[in-house]
Write a structure and sequence with these properties.
The structure is a single chain. The protein is of the alpha/beta class. The chain is 42% helix and 12% strand. It is built from twelve helices and twelve strands. It is globular, with a radius of gyration of 21 Å.
Length: 382
């Protein structure tokens, strides 16, 4: 039996060179970065070099990069601090955001009595810009817009530059969960007037448990985790040095190889789309995931024409065949109620059918696509 990993939107295989760098860091650079002796200074130097490197690739200032445990912590830190410290009274978001945003917004309603407004979506899951502008102009309350750049389930790409310009013209802060796009798309944070973005290393072949937040200078956020003065005072606690080293190595590798790997992975996605259309002609693509120019090159979400009995067995069958993929997002596997994203865009009829997300990386091959399509075809005919 083959073992095929098509769940790269959930997490990715760590690059070998990243593992090597982390092993070396664990073995030879074990001083506390806050210590003033040579061991500590060596570790601190590596952390600051990682910060400078990331900032350079994003065209940001090093002081604007704050290391965190990942995207969820960074989202929480930004949204909570914006309400608590910046006087944000209204959060404008969408119903297809990651739960790191939606659940945090719900908690802030209960804790601070803020308003949460949801921008309208079309049937493909795209933001209604006219409605967003109306929400921004609705009253004089201080507002923060939180919209993800690349949707983690259906792969739609938001025109983040246009959204940023709109928010700036209306005096609103803009936060974007960019976990699915950092390491996969180029960013110029001087050209795009966005206030906050977030990243998680394990989405671009780095280690789990580390990421970063971009917090634009002079936004005056206060720390969420209080104690020491680490991370410019934004995040107390001894830094996970080996993880930060791994994040930097993965980040640099992602951007140094971006165009080559993007071309290769785009080819795999295109190949998958063409093959599944032939094998299962009634297949539907959720959101814009079937459009190469309107969705990320790493994700395809398909709605398959199977009855209820087949639907219940599909992921189990794929797993038995050695195929890893997701029904909805991995962050809610095992949760009742299915995908909150698909619930917003699919018809009642299509919601009864199985929707599966396949997500690709540099480590996948066309031969793996052939195998997966053949398994799906045989299952559809059984």
């Amino acid at each position: 039996m083959q073992k095929i990993y098509f769940d790269n939107a959930a997490t990715t295989r760590v690059r070998e060179e990243v593992i090597a760098k982390m092993q070396d860091a664990l073995a030879s650079c074990y001083g506390n970065p806050s210590s003033t002796h040579g061991f500590g200074r060596s570790a601190k130097t590596e952390i600051e070099q990682a910060r400078k490197t990331i900032a350079k690739y994003l065209n940001a200032h090093p002081s604007e990069i704050i290391f965190t445990s990942g995207g969820t912590e960074a989202d929480n830190m930004i949204l909570r601090s914006a309400v608590r410290d910046l006087g944000v009274q209204t959060i404008i978001t969408s119903k297809i955001e990651h739960h790191a945003v939606l659940h945090t917004a719900d908690a802030l309603v209960k804790e601070f009595g803020i308003q949460v407004e949801f921008v309208d979506l079309d049937s493909f899951g795209n933001i209604d810009l006219v409605h967003l502008e109306q929400l921004l102009a609705a009253d004089d309350s201080k507002k923060l817009v939180s919209l993800m750049h690349v949707n983690n389930e259906i792969g739609n790409i938001l025109d983040i530059h246009e959204i940023a310009k709109l928010c700036k013209s209306k005096g609103a802060f803009l936060h974007s969960d960019t976990v699915q796009s950092i390491g996969h798309f180029q960013w110029d944070l001087q050209a795009t007037p966005i206030d906050f973005i977030v990243a998680a290393a394990h989405k671009f072949h780095g280690p789990k448990g580390v990421g970063f937040a971009f917090i634009r200078k002079n936004t005056n956020l206060e720390p969420l985790i209080i104690g020491g003065s680490q991370e410019r005072g934004y995040r107390a606690g001894t830094e996970a040095f080996h993880n930060i080293v791994g994040l930097k190595e993965a980040f640099v590798a992602a951007y140094d190889n971006l165009e080559k790997e993007k071309e290769y992975i785009s080819g795999l996605k295109d190949y998958f789309i063409k093959k599944i259309k032939v094998a299962i002609p009634e297949v539907k693509f959720n959101g814009y995931s079937g459009h190469l120019d309107k969705s990320t090159y790493t994700i395809v979400s398909v709605c398959l024409p199977f009855n209820k009995e087949k639907s219940q067995m599909l992921l189990f069958h794929l797993d038995l065949k050695g195929i890893a993929c997701s029904e909805g997002s991995a962050c809610q596997s095992g949760a009742d109620g299915g995908s909150h994203v698909l619930a917003q865009i699919l018809s009642e009829e299509d919601l009864q059918k199985p929707s599966v997300r396949f997500s690709f990386s540099k480590y996948n091959t066309k031969e793996e696509v052939d195998y997966v399509i053949e398994v799906l075809k045989e299952f559809s005919q059984s």
